[in-house]
Amino acid sequence: MNIENTKAQMRKGVLEFCILSVLKEKDAYTSEILDTLKNAKLLVVEGTIYPLLTRLKNDGLLSYRWEESTSGPPRKYYGLTEIGQTFLNELTTTWTELSDAVNLITNQK
């Protein structure tokens, strides 16, 4: 069994939740989202995040707008839709329940 593969699958499972959480406070463009994830030690490459952002947009959880940049081409800013906020609220509840259960099981002696 490959531990790196298992760790990657665990990270991948929470990536959608983390991206939606990053966008709950304010709209952000892809580089900002990636930087926030990397600062939290959740390593994600651009080739992973772009398809995920597109899928979340197509599912109605995110919207986007183009904004001019003073340091290059226009940037695509993503934000939560109303449906996305509701979805995030449900994921947050589920995450809390799951996290509590895992902590209870893994911390028992």
UniProtKB/TrEMBL annotation:
Membrane spanning stretches: none
InterPro entries to which the protein is assigned, alphabetical: Metal_resp_DNA-bind_regulator, Tscrpt_reg_PadR_N, WH-like_DNA-bd_sf, WH_DNA-bd_sf
Residue span, Transcription regulator PadR N-terminal domain: 19-89
Domain of life, source organism: Bacteria
Pfam hit, one: PadR
Stretch forming the signal peptide: none
Protein name as catalogued: Transcriptional regulator, PadR family
Organism: Flavobacterium frigoris
